[in-house]
Amino acid sequence: MDYNFRFGALWRFRDQILEGVLLTLQLSVVTMACGLAISLVVALASTSNLTVPRLAARVYVETIRNTPLLVQLFIVFFGLPTLGIRLNANTAALIALSINMGAYGAEILRAGFESVRHSQIEAGRALGLSAGQTFQHVVLFQAIKAIYPALASQFVLIMLTTSVVSSIGATELFNTAAFIDSRTYLSFETYALITAAYLILTLGFRALFAAIYWVVFVRRSRR
Asked: How far apart, in whole angstroms, are the C-alpha atoms of residue 199 and residue 192?
């Protein structure tokens, strides 16, 4: 193989790469926050004693989890304008990713809520706690501890999945890579560098989440 790697030629695009990293992080964090809010509402609905909210939550979760994210993204970006709702690429990406995250997160939260023994809930109510106080003081911490690793993994997955939104022109790291490749024709060097950037972000977040788990859950349980 007679090929001279030219990673140095990418140095002039360092500002664009940094901006792509920041936009990916911003999109990931906002998606996770919005997705968790949706997840909580759906998880509470799916565990409700009311038939209509429970059925609606189940239909939403099954629909989103059993259809491709790319199709959902295209419906939001290309389909909604048919109904008169026009969104820019970044907003459409945020909405589609949040809806997708909401379905997966709802199942994680539901599993966490159901992992708390019913006897503990009954004990809380017997002590005079209201349903809200029982949820806050008895259920919430134990549920979050049980599902924290899954939620952390879901965040990392969402961050990696943001690369899909480049298909509608949303500005993030993979979109930046495509731009650089179109200007330099250094495909291997460009995507190798972007792969390294994603790897660093992933390992960094995993280390951060592990540290948070140790501080919030492990240290607290030792007190």
From this structure: 10
Six token digits for residue 189? 């060097």
Q: What is the pLDDT of residues 10-44, one digit of tens each?
A: 999 999 999 999 999 999 999 999 999 999 999 98
Q: How many domains does the chain have?
A: 1
pLDDT tens-digit map of 81-124: 999 999 999 999 999 999 999 999 999 998 888 877 777 767 77
Calpha distance 74→5 (Å, rounded): 36
Amino acid, res. 205: F
Cβ contact 220:214 at 8 Å:
no
- Is residue 86 in a domain? yes
Q: Residue type at 186?
A: L
174 belongs to a structural domain: yes
